[in-house]
């Protein structure tokens, strides 16, 4: 939808007044009306690195979700302030693993006598508490663009991986990229005693997958893939690894949001693509590449925005920028020192992956 010209002008003015003091990051799933004001756009891995590379900016305005703003705070210096334009922009997947549940899981692994062999690998899409747990227990963070490298590293450190919170990214990476079988993976359900697993099942597993998922990518099904292949002969199906295993197995290409963009940039004119990821990004790519004769459609028939990403809209961005320009620090995201120290350890292990 076209953005309100009055709000566009106010955002532009406030940003101009702030100058180099502010740096605006925009995740690929953000609305067009917000993305137009981003100094840099990217997937969660690129944005984490970009935030850390801007020491001169006093304010980092993170147009994305809460866990991304926390990661930016962890990776930036203490006097830089990370701001999330709407504090209600969370992530349902990140909320599926709480610190208490993960501590309980570690007790279960200890009881089964395997905790010493287990290396935690946590997806970026997790709270700072989970990242701190990961750092404390010798593990690393990963994103959808480096999950294989993170798992390669983890299996050099230990015999088993506890992968949290996204079961699909964990399973897809293990089976597609690491040559493991579905039987090497078990699913730990935090709502059941002992995760719903016996000690023998835990001992036999190589990958212990946390039972979390993304509600947006979880909507794509094998039917969506079959339907689109029928509707558009010759279509290339390209999906994000947060999709279910059966969807990923039926797709032609799989990758993070940055991978998806690069694949479409490299695609020949006349090619047809069905994309299984968030709708703001797919629509933007469809518009961008239509003049080059690339046909890009959304993988599913029903719309599927990430509702929490969408909470960051132009009115929230205007309010944030105007407040900062007037010297009012609003919506700061600040991780406490102890959590930050351990979470940083895990994030730095990720940034150091080969
Ligand atoms: P990436 O940005 O790593 O592709 O992750 C997608 C996502 O779901 C972010 O919330
Ligand atoms: Fe979380 Fe999924 Fe939204 Fe990403 S797309 S922020 S994983 S709910």
Automatic annotation (TrEMBL):
<dbReference type="InterPro" id="IPR003473">
    <property type="entry name" value="NadA"/>
</dbReference>
<dbReference type="Pfam" id="PF02445">
    <property type="entry name" value="NadA"/>
</dbReference>
<feature type="binding site">
    <location>
        <position position="27"/>
    </location>
    <ligand>
        <name>iminosuccinate</name>
    </ligand>
</feature>
<keyword id="KW-0408">Iron</keyword>
<dbReference type="GO" id="GO:0008987">
    <property type="term" value="F:quinolinate synthetase A activity"/>
</dbReference>
<keyword id="KW-0004">4Fe-4S</keyword>
<feature type="binding site">
    <location>
        <position position="91"/>
    </location>
    <ligand>
        <name>[4Fe-4S] cluster</name>
    </ligand>
</feature>
<keyword id="KW-0963">Cytoplasm</keyword>
<keyword id="KW-0808">Transferase</keyword>
<feature type="binding site">
    <location>
        <position position="214"/>
    </location>
    <ligand>
        <name>[4Fe-4S] cluster</name>
    </ligand>
</feature>
<dbReference type="InterPro" id="IPR036094">
    <property type="entry name" value="NadA_sf"/>
</dbReference>
<feature type="binding site">
    <location>
        <position position="144"/>
    </location>
    <ligand>
        <name>iminosuccinate</name>
    </ligand>
</feature>
<comment type="function">
    <text>Catalyzes the condensation of iminoaspartate with dihydroxyacetone phosphate to form quinolinate.</text>
</comment>
<keyword id="KW-0411">Iron-sulfur</keyword>
<feature type="binding site">
    <location>
        <position position="257"/>
    </location>
    <ligand>
        <name>iminosuccinate</name>
    </ligand>
</feature>
<feature type="binding site">
    <location>
        <position position="44"/>
    </location>
    <ligand>
        <name>iminosuccinate</name>
    </ligand>
</feature>
<dbReference type="GO" id="GO:0034628">
    <property type="term" value="P:'de novo' NAD+ biosynthetic process from L-aspartate"/>
</dbReference>
<keyword id="KW-0662">Pyridine nucleotide biosynthesis</keyword>
<feature type="binding site">
    <location>
        <begin position="240"/>
        <end position="242"/>
    </location>
    <ligand>
        <name>iminosuccinate</name>
    </ligand>
</feature>
<comment type="similarity">
    <text>Belongs to the quinolinate synthase family. Type 3 subfamily.</text>
</comment>
<feature type="binding site">
    <location>
        <begin position="123"/>
        <end position="125"/>
    </location>
    <ligand>
        <name>iminosuccinate</name>
    </ligand>
</feature>
<dbReference type="InterPro" id="IPR023515">
    <property type="entry name" value="Quinolinate_synth_A_type3"/>
</dbReference>
<protein>
    <recommendedName>
        <fullName>Quinolinate synthase</fullName>
        <ecNumber>2.5.1.72</ecNumber>
    </recommendedName>
</protein>
<comment type="pathway">
    <text>Cofactor biosynthesis; NAD(+) biosynthesis; quinolinate from iminoaspartate: step 1/1.</text>
</comment>
<keyword id="KW-0479">Metal-binding</keyword>
<dbReference type="GO" id="GO:0051539">
    <property type="term" value="F:4 iron, 4 sulfur cluster binding"/>
</dbReference>
<feature type="binding site">
    <location>
        <position position="306"/>
    </location>
    <ligand>
        <name>[4Fe-4S] cluster</name>
    </ligand>
</feature>
<dbReference type="GO" id="GO:0005829">
    <property type="term" value="C:cytosol"/>
</dbReference>
<dbReference type="GO" id="GO:0046872">
    <property type="term" value="F:metal ion binding"/>
</dbReference>
């Amino acid at each position: 939808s076209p953005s309100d010209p009055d709000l566009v002008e106010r955002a532009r003015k406030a940003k101009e007044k702030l100058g180099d003091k502010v740096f605006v990051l925009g995740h690929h799933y953000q609305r067009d009306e917000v993305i137009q004001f981003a100094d840099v756009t990217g997937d969660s891995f690129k944005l984490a690195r970009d935030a850390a590379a801007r020491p001169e900016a006093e304010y980092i305005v993170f147009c994305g979700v809460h866990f991304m703003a926390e990661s930016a705070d962890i990776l930036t210096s203490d006097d830089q302030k990370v701001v999330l334009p709407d504090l209600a922009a969370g992530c349902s997947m990140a909320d599926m693993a709480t610190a208490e549940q993960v501590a309980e899981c570690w007790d279960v692994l200890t009881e089964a006598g395997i905790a010493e062999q287990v290396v935690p690998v946590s997806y970026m899409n997790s709270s700072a508490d989970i990242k701190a747990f990961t750092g404390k227990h010798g593990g690393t963070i990963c994103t959808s663009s480096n999950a294989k490298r993170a798992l390669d590293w983890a299996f050099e450190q230990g015999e088993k991986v506890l992968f949290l919170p996204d079961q699909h990214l964990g399973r897809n990476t293990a089976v597609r990229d690491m040559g493991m079988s579905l039987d090497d993976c078990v699913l730990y359900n935090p709502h059941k005693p002992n995760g719903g697993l016996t000690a023998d099942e835990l001992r036999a597993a190589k990958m212990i997958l946390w039972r979390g998922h993304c509600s947006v990518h979880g909507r794509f099904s094998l039917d969506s893939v079959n339907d689109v292949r029928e509707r558009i002969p010759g279509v290339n199906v390209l999906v994000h690894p947060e999709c279910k295993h059966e969807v990923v197995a039926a797709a032609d290409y799989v990758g993070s949001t940055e991978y998806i963009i690069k694949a479409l940039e490299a695609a020949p004119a006349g090619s047809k693509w069905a994309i299984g990821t968030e709708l703001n990004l797919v629509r933007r790519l469809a518009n961008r590449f239509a003049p080059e004769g690339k046909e890009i459609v959304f993988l599913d028939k029903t719309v599927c925005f990430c509702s929490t990403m969408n909470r960051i809209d132009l009115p929230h961005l205007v309010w944030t920028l105007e407040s900062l320009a007037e010297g009012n620090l609003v919506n700061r995201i600040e991780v406490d020192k102890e959590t930050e120290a351990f979470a940083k350890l895990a994030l730095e292990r990720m940034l150091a992956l080969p």
